[in-house]
Amino acid sequence: VHRIKMSRLPVMSSKRLLPGSSAENAQEYAPAAKKTRKEPEPLKPFAAATVIGSKRPPAAATRAGISKPVRGAGAATVAAGPSRARGGNITQPVGPGAKTGGAGASKRKPWDLKGKVTDMEVRMRNYQTKVKSVNEENEVLKGTMVQNQTRVAEMEKELKRQREQIGTYEKELQVLSGIRDELETALGEKTSLQKELANLEGKYKAMETLVDSHVTELATLKMKLSVEESTSARLQGTVREMEEEVCSLKQTVGEQEDELHVREMERRRLHNTIQELKGNIRVFCRVRPLVGGGVSKHIQLPAADNKLITLAKTEESHTGKTMDTQRNYSFSFDRVFGPGASQQEIFEEISLLVQSALDGYNVCCFAYGQTGSGKTYTMEGDEFSDTRGVIPRAVQQIFRAAEKLGAQGWEFNFTASFVEIYNESLKDLLHTGKRELEIRKSTNNEVTITNLTYEKVTNEDQVLGLIALANQNRSTAQTAQNDRSSRSHSVFQLDIEGVNGGRDIKCKSRTTLCLVDLAGSERMVKSQSQGERFKEMTAINGSLSNLGIVISALASKENYIPYRNSKLTYLLQACLGGNSKTLMFVNIAPEPDSFGETLNSLRFASKVNDCVIGTASANRK
Ligand SMILES: Nc1ncnc2c1ncn2[C@@H]1O[C@H](COP(=O)(O)OP(=O)(O)OP(=O)(O)O)[C@@H](O)[C@H]1O
Which sites bind ATP (predicted)? Predict the structure, then answer.
């Protein structure tokens, strides 16, 4: 308030004051008037502070100056008023004094120079005091400035340190950011691991449940086991008893096996004796039924005897004066089968002979007779079980008997072959291509054919398959040449090799079961036979008559047996010798117009029947 009043004073006084003094007053107070309108300068407060409390510590003033310079200045300026007011002789004379002085100056008489000088001296002293105070303020400010400069230097140092610190922090921050990234990755991993853990925990729980159930099961099983163990202990006792029993039974079985073997050997001996008594070559006669049914008048088969057959022929009187005469031709064979005999009946008679093949004897069975007399039917038969012929039945019997003998320690190997002899040349019926076949005789008198298929067989079905193949190959050849099968011999051979290694005596046998379907035996009618037919007939007749010759040579124990005169006898020599059992079927056609051929066949068969070929001995080593 005082300052405002003071600032207005020079303005008012300028109009009133004398030119000389008013200029000084104007210079003195004009800045003060400006100061009230302008913002206070920064250093003012310090001056004011120094004036108000010069005894106050400079630090407080410094702090005030640094922190709030503008406001402080304001406060200091306001505070300066009273201090000046309290200054006594400055304010009093300037305020009221101004009024007074002004009034005094204006009231001083122009001549009152002394008064004016006094006023001027008062003013002068005021100014001096003010200058002194300003100088003191200046000194304080200088000190403060030095302090501030030191402070600024410190601050700069601090700033620099802070910056370095910031740099360090930034680096640390970078490191920390890296660590943060790692942490984030680790966190991600942690999350996935937590999930996995949760999953595993679930599984673990499931496993625990499973384990619990297994533990329960185990407990149950343990209980069962203990029960079983006690049962087992009981059973072990029983087993021991049974083992002892089995031991004694084994001993008994061994003894019985030995006995069985002795009996088996005895059976074989007796079987052979029976065969010998029956003759090593036997002839069965079989009469085919008439094609249209009915009974044949010229063939008589006495009902009481199944060994006789009589052919009756009525001869007309040439002159007509005498009665017609009847000639009977009677033949006796080991067995005669009438037209009603079944395939089964036929086989029963020869099954004993087939058994001989397993007992170590060569066996040969062949069918002789004119074309259409029933040779193929007898040997092969039809494919149905009831009408099956000798070959399939013999094969079945052989394999069944071999299986039974297997229980007594016998092991058998079988080899099958099927060959056709046509026009004195050989054909492999188990092979479709053409091959050069040659009959060879080894040093140990074994007869083999070079290039022939010898098929290893282990069961009946395999053999039947081979027979079917042979028939197929034979019928193919038949289509090329009419009625070829009637004009060729077919020879089925089953080589049997048996070993009994289980006993002290090693029994080994090698035999052949030979089943032959001969060519038609009808004689050659010279006028009708020409070219190929003539050649065929010559070959057939030659081989069949040589068969007869060989058999009678064997019967009369001649030194030389002409086996090599025909392929048939050469091939069958092992089965026709003294070491074999031979069965011949003579097949008869019942038609009257076959009378001549029938008589011829029966005569041939009768000759064979009369032969007694030496005693056969088993092929055992
Ligand atoms: N005992 C029989 N019972 C019924 N039918 C038979 C009998 N014997 C033969 N036959 C029939 O007579 C016909 C001629 O028989 P088969 O073919 O066996 O004579 P084959 O002597 O073998 O003649 P080939 O010399 O031409 O071969 C055939 O149809 C056959 O089925």
Answer: 369-376
CA distance 350 to 361: 14
Q: Tell whether ipTM is more than 0.85.
A: yes
Tell me, yes or no, if the pTM score tops 0.95.
Answer: no
pLDDT digits (tens, 9 = 90+) for 575-597: 887 668 888 999 999 999 999 99
Give, for ligand 1, the residue of 301, 344, 346, 377 to mutate: max count of ligand atoms closer than 8 Å to Cβ: 377
Tell me the one-letter amino acid at 412.
Answer: F
Neighbours of 437 (CB within 10 A): 18
| Bridge partners, 490 (sequence order) | 420, 517
In a domain, 317, yes or no: yes
Which residue, by CA, sits nearest to atom 8 of ligand 1? 374
Ligand 1 centre distance from Cα of residue 373 (Å):
6
The answer to the question of residue 368 being in a domain is yes
> Atom 15 (ligand 1): residue with closest C-alpha?
374
Distance 388 CA to ligand 1 centre (A): 13
Ligand 1 midpoint to CA 289 (Å): 9
Q: Which residues line ligand 1 (CB under 6 A)?
A: 288-289, 369, 371-377, 485-486, 520, 587
Distance 583 CA to ligand 1 centre (A): 19
Return mean pLDDT, the chain.
Answer: 77
- For residues 306 and 453, state if they share a domain: yes
Residue 134, SS3 per DSSP: helix
- Residue with CA closest to ligand 1 atom 11: 374
465 annotated among ligand-binding-site residues: no
User: Which CATH number goes with the domain that contains 417?
Assistant: 3.40.850.10
Total domains in the chain come to 2
172 pLDDT more than 60 = yes
Better pLDDT: 414 or 434:
414
Residue 146 domain boundaries: 130-246
Tracing tokens 């074989």 back to the chain, one arrives at 268
Cα(374) to ligand 1 centroid in Å equals 3
Q: Are residues 300 and 200 in the same domain?
A: no
Alpha-helical runs (H) found in 407-530: 460-480
pLDDT at 395: 92
C-alpha–C-alpha distance, residues 536 and 529, integer Å: 9
**Residue 436 located in a structural domain:** yes
